[in-house]
Design goal:
The protein is α/β, with parallel strands linked by helices and 181 residues long. The protein has a single domain, classed as Peptidyl-tRNA hydrolase (Rossmann fold), CATH 3.40.50.1470. The protein has 5 helices and 7 strands. Strand 2 and strand 3 form a beta hairpin. It is globular and about 45 Å long. 37% of the residues are buried. Its EC number is 3.1.1.29. Monomer. This is Peptidyl-tRNA hydrolase. It comes from Candidatus Chisholmbacteria bacterium RIFCSPHIGHO2_01_FULL_52_32.
């Protein structure tokens, strides 16, 4: 079993925010499949969708408690860390870029910190979606990371996020065997 977790915050208040880009990518991945409807699984505190041996999940805990839901899913489905893929926003990567890396993610991301604590390891796949688009220089006047990730994308940024989401779905969906070019 492969587990693909998109990180984000539940509720309409957070739709379209930078922190919810993990939800967006997982939703787009599911949308490429037929009958791709997420269902609530209260026991695992997540919206889930399964196709063959791939389970897509959107934890319904808030971001900072993502590890609770991910830990429950990993234990129940007996997912090895090498088959765990976490899709998340990343301030270390410019908007419009992404990286797929094993065991390497941003150091300051509370959702990931929660998962690391729950699993006792950083050793899983990170699908890192770049969201950094703040002006350089005059650091003291820049929006803090905590506030920035909860802001919505501008129209221009939404176009870039859609492009990168399409690229990730094609590449990552191909890796999982869910999407063919």
């Amino acid at each position: 079993m492969k587990l693909v977790v998109g990180l984000g915050n539940p509720g309409g208040k957070y739709v379209g925010t930078r922190h919810n880009v993990g939800f967006l990518v997982v939703e787009e991945l599911a949308a490429t499949l037929q009958n791709s409807k997420f269902k609530i699984n209260e026991k695992y505190m997540s919206l889930v969708f399964q196709v063959d041996d791939v389970l897509l999940a959107k934890p319904q805990t808030f971001m900072n408690r993502s590890g609770v839901a991910v830990g429950k899913l990993v234990r129940f489905y007996k997912v090895s860390k090498s088959n765990l893929y976490v899709v998340h926003d990343d301030l270390d990567i410019p908007l419009g870029k992404y990286k797929i890396q094993f065991g390497k993610g941003p150091k300051v991301h509370q959702g990931l910190q929660s998962i690391y604590r729950e699993l006792g390891s950083e050793g899983f796949w990170h699908i890192r979606i770049g969201i950094e688009h703040r002006a350089k220089g005059m650091e003291e006047q820049r929006t803090t990371g905590e506030a920035y990730v909860l802001q919505r994308f501008t129209e221009e940024e939404q176009a870039l996020i859609q492009q990168v989401t399409d690229q990730v779905v094609l590449e990552f969906g191909g890796i999982l065997g869910l999407v063919s070019e």
